[in-house]
Write the structure tokens for this entry.
Amino acid sequence: MKLWRYLGTEEVTNLSKRAKVLVITATTFLILLFTLMPQAAAAGSITLTPSAQTPGGTVTVTGTGFGASKLIGIGIGSEITVTGEAHTPTGTGTGPWMTRTNYYPIKPGSFSFHSNVVDGAETDFTDKGDGTMSTTSTYDAGSYLTYVTGAFGRSSTMDLSSSTVIFTAAYKYYQYNATPPGNQNSTATGTFSFQITVPPGLANGDYTVTAMDTSGNTATATLTVNNVIPEDLPLFGVLLLSSVAVIVSLMVLRKRPKNVT
């Protein structure tokens, strides 16, 4: 026997209304929950023109999907891990007390540093991958990190002017820093187009080009480095080079002096 056979018309109607209310309430809750959830930043994308180049040559890097008006950094090659890199920061009073890593740009999300106020408090700061850092320090008054330039540091609720402060950093960077000079930023719509120089003396092979902004948005593309003329040179180019070679050979033969007997 089904449930409604034991219920009157009014009870069935009330049950139906309650079911509708529950469905509407649940749907509204899910929509609100999705709206309030932190949304991960969309990854950027880059293209290389040309995608194959000789050492010392230039390549245009075009990017989309980055943060608005953000400083852009570009690295070439594999990631290299650094640990135990000690620095003595500079600053006055409560800060900021700042220094710079030995190598950069830094891979977003890979950075951390240990702050040691000698004869005082020690604490750790960890990169959250978005240009900010987390810490459990009770004296924290702000921390700072710029992936592109390697600048980092902290402020404190205490005056550190009379203290010896040591920062010990760990991070990942890229083999070659190809960031264009002049601290170039993305546009208001998160796009950019910069020229970079392929490091002279780079061995033939494929290399990863990584672009990032100060908010941790990143993108990669593959650059082929080749010291010789590419095999896929257009037919017109091959014919042109062959014709030039023939003309030069004929000119040389014509200029040879005749043998005197």
Q: What stands out?
A: Residues 9-36 form the longest helix (28 residues).
